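[agent] plan:
  1. take the single chain provided in the ticket
  2. run structure prediction with default settings
  3. attach structure tokens to the ticket
  4. add a short note for the reviewer (M.T.)
[agent] executing step 1
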Amino acid sequence: MAGRRTGTRERIKKVALELFIEQGYEKTSLREIAERLGVTKAALYYHFPTKQGIIEAVVADIGTDVDELVAWGQDQPRGPGTRAEILRRIAELVTGPWGDVIRFGQTNQAAMRSHDVGDELGSKMFAVVGLIIDPDAGLEDQLRSLLALVAIYLANLPGLPDVLGPLATASPEERSAAATAVARDLIGLADPASTLRG
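[agent] step 2 finished; step 3 output follows
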């Protein structure tokens, strides 16, 4: 029974994000979410009585991913290989489970700000930045490490304008691969075979 409840919660979050992206957070009602899911409003309320609750659950999922990444990174030796693996894992998350959340954030910036759901996530992401940036490195090397993280995020933004040419028309997989290659280059690790796994 618990697995079924978990599956229902996951479906609700997925469908709600789709609707929030399609028509906006403010314009989407819980009734519309329930209709898209094919359930009653009462069934939806059982899991999430408010839209805010859905967004908080989605952000909590990302927070858990970030916590796991930080815990893994803190157990690894500091160095370019660990930083490269952290960047690879972030690229995997951005093109996978975080993709819809990024799209939601782009199309619903006012909702993100008004509900303060991004504050906790932002502070967690600084812990990831702390793993990527070598505190003993010079200013330029620290900036390269930070730009590596930004490259992965920017290359995976949905709806890039056509003026960007190949970056806008490439598949998500191609953009992610290119961003990861650029990120690796920025941190001085061009050989993918030397990336840590595990």
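[agent] step 4 note for reviewer: Residues 66 and 124 are 7 Å apart (CA to CA).
[agent] ticket updated
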